[in-house]
Amino acid sequence: QAYLSYSNIAALTHLARKPGWDIAKTLDNVTIWTHEEGAVLSFKVEMQVKVPSQVAFSLLSDFRFRQRWDRHFLTCKVLQAVSEEEKIYHVTSAPMTGHKPRDFVILVSQRQPCRPQEPYTVAVRSVTLRAVPPSPEFCRSEILCAGFQIHTKSSSSCTVCYFNQVTSGVMPYLAANLTGSSKSIEDTALECIKFLE
């Protein structure tokens, strides 16, 4: 478990530091970036938020709040509190037209910065839990690497970056978005800002 938590945080840190991010779209308080490497597409949503970084961190690291601003989350329950900083959740998401609803078993690892210039980190990846085998009513999907980095800007504002390394499981939600026929990433980002503020 210690290795899984470490690799969860390390994978997100590595993704965030990769060179070659391209701006896909800019709005008032939201910038959407993409990064392509072989068959892997990653995206980053950068949000300017008028709350202290510590507040954003505590709200974003508890995934039970996620349904309040992310309409892709139908249900989210804690399966196991591994430690103060690690929890395993079971998440279900709304079905896309013609598909079964999806479900995910995810490990969420949170870390406070060790040094002032470092971000707060909330890393997410899929894990396998014997107690929750795939169920016939859902299509079990996988998150390779996702999460938030929260950078302090001032005592009352921060920059929240959401990252996701896209697998085929998440692709249907995104394809329409990046081609511009849907605004779900932008809408979700604006809902997230509203929720945090």
Automatic annotation (TrEMBL):
Please name the SMART domains in this protein's record. Answer: START
InterPro entries attached here?
START-like_dom_sf, START_lipid-bd_dom, START_lipid_transfer
Q: Which residues form the START domain?
A: 16-166
Pfam families hit by this protein: START
> Which parts form a coiled-coil structure per UniProt?
none
Show the GO cellular component annotation of the record.
cytoplasm
- Entry protein name: ACO12 thioesterase
**Which organism encodes this protein?**
Chaetops frenatus (Rufous rock-jumper)
What is the primary gene name for this protein? Acot12_1
